[in-house]
Amino acid sequence: MNLYISVEVLVRELDSKLLLAVIAASRGHEVIVSDNESIIKGLERKLLKPGLYLTKSLVPSKAKLKRHKKIIELGCKISSIDEEGGLVDYGYDQMIRLRYDTQTIAQASAVFTWGKEDFIALKKSFPKYSKKFYMTGSPRSDLWTTKFSSYWKKDFIKFNKPYLLIPSNFGAGLAHLSFYERMMIRKKRGYFEKEYGYVKMAMKRESELFKFISYFIEAIEHLSKNKKYHVVLRPHPAENEKIWKILLSNISNVSVIKKDGISHWVENSFAILHNGCTTALEACISQKPVITYSPFKASYDRKLANDLGEKVTNLSNLSKKVDSIFLKYIKKNKFNKPLPKILTNKIFIDKKETAAEKIVNVWEKLSDHRHSKKNNWFLYKSGLKIMKLNKFRGEIFKKNHKTEENFKFPPFEKKKIDYKIEELVKIMSINKKISCTLFSDRTILIKQNN
Questions:
Q1: What is the pLDDT of residue 190?
Q2: CA-CA distance, 387 to 347, in Å (whole number)?
Q3: How many other C-beta atoms lie within 10 A of the C-beta of residue 394?
Q4: Neighbouring C-beta atoms of residue 399, cutoff 10 Å
Q5: Alpha helices in 109-240 (DSSP H)
Q6: How far apart are CA 213 and CA 200, in angstroms?
Q7: What is the pLDDT of residue 398?
Q8: Are 309 and 292 in contact (CB under 8 A)?
């Protein structure tokens, strides 16, 4: 079976997509993990045979509907798991309004859900397509469990003392994209029509986020004075780390690091300090203490994520709480807290079978003879080189040509991916030899070595 797994935000999605690919490859399937463009153009130019295609959302934009229609016409089947997840808020109604539609669900052959809540909500909202929804859980949350703890130890920047992790999820003026660019994207996705008062809400939310940034800078400066531990600020994938470095440049004992997935930093921290961040859910599953800093009453509070942490509202109580957790960490008191129901409703974790295995099971049921035709990998690799060359030529002749860094998808690092695959093979007790071939800086092939 041919599997085409698209990646949008590399640091967020790579590890979970590699887990899917390794499990599929161990069963004899051949898997492309790549950016969307390389997969779509490969299919359109008949460089890739039909297969099963995994997308990161079913947002009903005109461009996505058109793209998915073309993919289906080329003999492929579409499946999806929404990478946003709707995890930080109670309920799933707004998530459904903004990110799903009858048209995109009609195009999909399978829609995988993070947990019980989105599974029930989607079936209720789209009863006609109820058989398309599968409560598998997410491969991302597989990697948050203790089973994969060893996976996150390699390639880690060592500090000479323990560290407190502060994951940022504020965006606003920290974002790579301007407010105008972000609003234009949401307009194209139809958010303005689907959510009454969306523009007004977005403006108010943006102003609150600036306020949070200011309070968190103050908190970081306050906490950094304790030299017994280090502070690591982890920018959100959509944030520009250079701006954070400027804002924190006069504060010692602090590092701004965007390298590697957030799970590296969660696994090796002694605690997480946040406000409204998905990392709070990950930290709970990874059995790490979570502190929610709420210095003011926010109108657009990400309530569920914030309810998972121990709440503090001022600097004095914040330092006391961090010091208390740090002391327990130094004394090697094991943190072991049962997962609250609000979390287990959001995220389904099956101790007997990973979400990634469940998803591959569904793919195998969906596939037919068309999806097992052998690809000519030399032809596809050559085609990728030609596409890259043509794109480069086109950019050169553009007026006011300027090469911009792709902040969502930097080039693959082959050595790091090889290591990750080796670790996943060990953890999953796979007795097959799995190989990874780099076709371009954003496309890899993962399959069994014959």
A1: 82
A2: 39
A3: 10
A4: 4
A5: 116-125, 139-142, 179-188, 191-194, 198-223
A6: 20
A7: 60
A8: yes
- Cβ atoms < 10 Å from Cβ of 96: 18
Provide the CA 224 distance to its chain's centre, in angstroms: 29
> Where do we find the tokens 């590697």?
260
Residues paired with 33 in a beta bridge: 5, 444
Q: Which residues pair with 2 in a beta bridge?
A: 30
Q: What is the pLDDT of residues 394-440, one digit of tens each?
A: 665 565 544 455 778 889 999 999 999 999 999 999 999 999 999 99
User: Contacts from 13-16 at CB under 8 Å and sequence distance 24+?
Assistant: 13/56, 13/83, 13/140, 14/261, 14/417, 15/140, 15/143, 15/151, 15/261, 15/263, 15/420, 16/138, 16/139, 16/140, 16/142, 16/143, 16/356
Cβ count within 10 A of residue 295: 18
Q: What is the mean pLDDT of the chain?
A: 92
User: E strand or H helix at 165, and its extent?
Assistant: strand 163-167
User: What are φ and ψ of residue 24, in 5° steps?
Assistant: -65, -45
Q: How many residues does the chain have?
A: 450
Enter the pTM of the model. 0.91
Query: For residue 100, which of 117, 71, 123, 72 has the smallest C-alpha distance?
Result: 123
**Lookup result for tokens 């709970």:** 284
- Residue 403 pLDDT: 46
Which among 292, 405, 307 is positioned nearest to 88, based on CA atoms? Answer: 307
- With CA atoms as reference, report the closest residue to 427 among 29, 15, 12: 15
SS3 assignment, position 43? helix
DSSP of 250-282, one letter per residue?
T-SSEEE---S-HHHHHHT-SEEEESS-THHHH
Contact indicator for 356, 24 with CB cutoff of 8 Å: no
The residue to which tokens 């902040």 are assigned? 407
Amino acid letter for position 317: N
Mean pLDDT, each 10-residue run in order, the chain (450 residues): 95 95 98 96 96 95 93 97 92 91 96 97 97 97 94 77 94 85 85 82 88 95 96 93 94 92 92 95 95 93 92 96 95 84 94 97 96 96 89 61 65 92 96 95 92
Q: What is d(CA 11, CA 410) in angstroms, rounded to the nearest whole number?
A: 9
Tokens 């949350």 -> residue: 141
Other C-beta atoms closer than 10 Å to the C-beta of 178 total 10
Distance CA 119, CA 154 (A): 35
Name the token pair of 404.
């911009």
**Long-range pairs of 425-434 with CB within 8 A, sequence gap ≥ 24:** 425/22, 425/26, 427/147, 427/148, 427/150, 427/151, 428/22, 428/23, 428/26, 428/354, 430/22, 430/23, 430/26, 432/25, 432/26, 434/22, 434/25, 434/26
For position 401, what pLDDT does the model report? Answer: 47
